Amino acid sequence: MTASQSAAQPDPAAFEALMRRHNQVLFRTARAILRDDAEAEDAVQEAYVQAYRSLGDFRAEAQLSTWLARIVVNEALMRLRKRKRRADIVPMQSGATAVELEQIPDSDMGKGPETSAARSEMRRLLEAQIDALPDTYRTVFVLRAVEELSVEETAAILDIPAATVRTRFFRARSLLRESLAQKIDVACEDAFSFAGERCDRIVARVLQRITHPQS
């Protein structure tokens, strides 16, 4: 029996294994659309319930992962439409939190707490900039760059042409590079800051040496 055939049986134990296998990509897909961790979790949960009830109708023409992702996309988009309708009535504050990206691997050097903090800060910056991408590009970017799905897999999940996936991914990367470059430019202005305590210390030492050369 193939994995797809096994998963198609309404067996909770088998379905648990299926969920654990696909949780990450489905959460990231929903999260890319909704930009909210809690709502993305709810969307994935609802999509799993729908999938479990419909497993008997699953046909092997499509990959099981693609079929599941399509259900998640539809559920997330439905929630997004509801949210926008509510926002037209009552303004909502953004509750977006960070996408969980894979931890940046350690290098051979700098594994101390300072490096860990720097990695975390860099990850938060990247997550925030991904969140800021337009809806059209963000989901494609997460599926292609974060989940490393192929163009064809992404196109099947989002039900768009492969050429559209390529165009949107290229544009998303360009927008991300531009936004990160702007953040880096601002950060560079404050890098190796000379003001404050360091400046006072050097000035004091020079004044001491020129006013009391023999001391």
Short summary:
With 215 residues, the chain is an all-alpha fold. Helices cover 72% and strands 0% of the residues.
What's the layout of helices and strands?
Blueprint (H helix, E strand, L loop, with lengths): L2 H5 L4 H23 L2 H18 L9 H26 L23 H19 L3 H12 L4 H8 L3 H29 L6 H15 L4
Helix pairs in contact: 2-3, 2-4, 2-6, 3-4, 4-7, 6-8, 7-8
Any guess at the CATH architecture of the largest domain? Orthogonal Bundle
CATH topology of the largest domain: Arc Repressor Mutant, subunit A
**Through-space gap between termini:** 89 Å
How does the major sheet shape up?
none
Explain this structure.
Helices cover 72% and strands 0% of the residues. The N and C termini lie far apart (89 Å). By secondary structure, the protein is an all-alpha fold. The protein folds into two domains: 3-89, Orthogonal Bundle (Rna Polymerase Sigma Factor, Chain: A), CATH 1.10.1740; 113-203, Orthogonal Bundle (Arc Repressor Mutant, subunit A), CATH 1.10.10. The chain is built from nine helices and no strands. The chain is elongated and about 95 Å long.
Keywords, separated by commas or semicolons:
single chain, 215 residues, mainly alpha, Rna Polymerase Sigma Factor, Chain: A, 2 domains
